[in-house]
């Protein structure tokens, strides 16, 4: 469970933005720097590598990069495209790292408990080889 003080919650809330995407919109391109952590509020997205859909993401899924564990900026190994109208809550990498640096107790809990549904910096070769792909597909199937 992620426990945060009121001050920490306010700091996080100040840095989150809401974005909207229409069907067909590309949110990430292969090779693009992963500078945000995205939480899907509504809608469905597909993750595409080498012209093949490797994951379908939906409400409640989180995607981006686990940059709080690795200081380098990752590059997306996939395209992310909206399948339906989507609402996303997004926080920029630098802003999240500032909050985590200031609120250490929350940072420890965050690092232990937040699960990325899909890590864009990981390349999937086959569903059997890539636990990230399997998790995203499994997560989506269980919600339907």
UniProtKB/TrEMBL annotation:
<feature type="domain" description="Cyclic nucleotide-binding">
    <location>
        <begin position="23"/>
        <end position="100"/>
    </location>
</feature>
<protein>
    <recommendedName>
        <fullName>Cyclic nucleotide-binding domain-containing protein</fullName>
    </recommendedName>
</protein>
<dbReference type="Pfam" id="PF00027">
    <property type="entry name" value="cNMP_binding"/>
</dbReference>
<dbReference type="InterPro" id="IPR000595">
    <property type="entry name" value="cNMP-bd_dom"/>
</dbReference>
<dbReference type="InterPro" id="IPR050818">
    <property type="entry name" value="KCNH_animal-type"/>
</dbReference>
<dbReference type="GO" id="GO:0042391">
    <property type="term" value="P:regulation of membrane potential"/>
</dbReference>
<dbReference type="InterPro" id="IPR014710">
    <property type="entry name" value="RmlC-like_jellyroll"/>
</dbReference>
<dbReference type="GO" id="GO:0005249">
    <property type="term" value="F:voltage-gated potassium channel activity"/>
</dbReference>
<dbReference type="GO" id="GO:0008076">
    <property type="term" value="C:voltage-gated potassium channel complex"/>
</dbReference>
<dbReference type="InterPro" id="IPR018490">
    <property type="entry name" value="cNMP-bd_dom_sf"/>
</dbReference>
């Amino acid at each position: 469970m992620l426990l945060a003080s009121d001050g920490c919650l306010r700091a996080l809330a100040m840095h989150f933005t809401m974005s909207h995407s229409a069907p067909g919109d590309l949110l990430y391109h292969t090779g693009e720097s992963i500078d945000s952590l995205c939480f899907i509020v509504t809608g469905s997205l597909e993750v595409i590598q080498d012209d093949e859909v490797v994951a379908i993401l939906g409400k409640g899924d989180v995607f981006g990069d686990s940059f709080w564990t690795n200081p380098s900026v990752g590059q997306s190994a996939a395209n992310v495209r909206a399948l339906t109208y989507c609402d996303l809550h997004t926080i920029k990498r630098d802003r999240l790292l500032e909050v985590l640096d200031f609120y250490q107790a929350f940072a420890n809990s965050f690092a232990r408990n937040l699960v990325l549904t899909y890590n864009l910096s990981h390349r999937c070769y086959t569903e059997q080889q890539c636990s990230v792909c399997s998790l995203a597909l499994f997560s989506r199937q269980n919600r339907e």
